Amino acid sequence: MLCLFSRAEIALSQEPSVGEKIAQAYGIGGFGEIEEIKFTFNVRKGETEAQRSWIWQPKADRVTYHGDGKTDKAVTYYRKDLSSPGSESLVEIDSHFINDQYWLIFPFHLVWDKDITVKIDPEKGKFPISGRIGRMVSVVYPPTGGYTPGDRYDLFLDDDNTIAEWIYRRGGSEIPTVSAAWEDNRRVGPIMLSLNHPGADGKFRVWFTGVELKLSSGERIKLDE
Question: Residue 10's pLDDT is what?
């Protein structure tokens, strides 16, 4: 996955592309109001569950990792410093952060990330979980750069340009790496988040807890669980 976050406020074109329309549906125009995002990423794969808790200050791109629930030790770093000498130990942590953050706010990366290809499939696609037929958008990342270059996402859209389901193909694999739904859409201040991502077979699920925003006004918004 490739993260090239540039600025909090993005100037959208008068005739938005499909990627911009998806990002708009999730409130990208208000993202500049956000000073801090707290969230816990939870994942279940078969009988195994894991969680990771984060605080992200997007304007400074400052990340605090609060661990996997087994320790209270926190690690804080600026993503711009990851290439500095001595930062090698942070790279694995940051790869987890990028993965978890993509599940939370992927629609915004359709505008933020550079050198990606976002295309509407001319033929309607079959949704991988519900089996219904609808619009499909492919998102392809470049073959170099990021933690997993060449990634591809197939997005299956509802009529309001929100994501109903997706297929993630690591490194562009023809065999899907993960198929999951985008459920439990919640308005959190200026943005909307999808908090529940169950897989097709009941053995896989990603979900978010402890979501809290701090806005530039000083207001804090915490989601009820």
Answer: 45
